[in-house]
Predict the structure.
Amino acid sequence: MKHLGVLTSGGDAPGMNAAIRAVTREALARGVRVTGIVHGYAGVLDWKAVELTARAVGGIIHNGGTILGSARCQKFCVDEGLEQALHNLTAHGIEGLVVIGGNGSQTGAACLALKGYPVVGVASTIDNDLCGTELTIGVDTALNAAMEAIDRLRVTASSHRQVSLVEVMGRKCGYLALMAGLAGGAETVVIPEVKINPDDVIQRLRDAFERGKEYAIAVVAEGAEYNGIWLEKYFQNLTHKTGLEARLTTLGHIQRGGTPGAFDRILASELGARAADRLIEGDCGILVGWTAGKVSTVPLSEVLGKTKIPNLQVLELIHRLAQ
Ligand code: F6P
């Protein structure tokens, strides 16, 4: 292989730049030219690309976001889009592609792989919802952002003797919510994977005050059946009975836009370099991730269409430790 492409796709994640840098420099070190495709799969279809030299990826390891830009592209996985993509990649001499992204992005990568095109995925999403890897680039930084927000909310909630409902991202996966709840010392966490009765949530929060606490925190996953807005309304309707006020803070993109922490920079550097290595060696159609403390690979076909289930025992731990 003499020329590879790299793109970032889906929601950006802190550490994507470190991954672009690692892919590029590993490839260049092996005499392989690198083209960066701009705005994910949309850039493949409309052909927007830049040459990535060693200097072009200099001074980016510490920056959040992605220098290549990102997008969600619905057209990509339909036959016409795929054919256009394959045509454009071949016409520009790109012999293989590294796709840095989460679930939707790796589905696109798997579609390319099914057509016989050499592609390697790099697991990167703040949701950590990808199967075939224990961790994804960006989740650690996103978790730290959520934890910092919870720490701040605890301060003001305790001044006002309030309930703080904190909604975090994560799509249909409760990983971010669970881990932010554990790290932030929440009373409870509401996630899509566990069916709850909203009255039980309220009871847990009331109990916290009865045990002498001056605040109570619930972390709510955006994908839960009862999300933050729903729970806040429900809680407010019962304020006359409970005597407690609940305030909702939706963290939204605050979790995505941060400066990558050390863990995400290290992870991105390891995964990016391995992805370039695998692609150049012809070991394609795989996702490069992180499992059992080291870089791991799994066929993209095993990742497709699945959402990871987080360790639900963490919820019991959160409840036990919230006394
Ligand atoms: O996949 C990352 C993510 O931040 C999810 O947690 C969230 O549901 C989604 O992206 C939001 O996407 P957008 O920024 O396109 O609205």
About this structure: The mean pLDDT is 97. Residues 10-11, 102, 125-127, 169-171, 222, 256 surround 6-O-phosphono-beta-D-fructofuranose (CB under 6 Å). The CA atoms of residues 6 and 60 lie 16 Å apart.
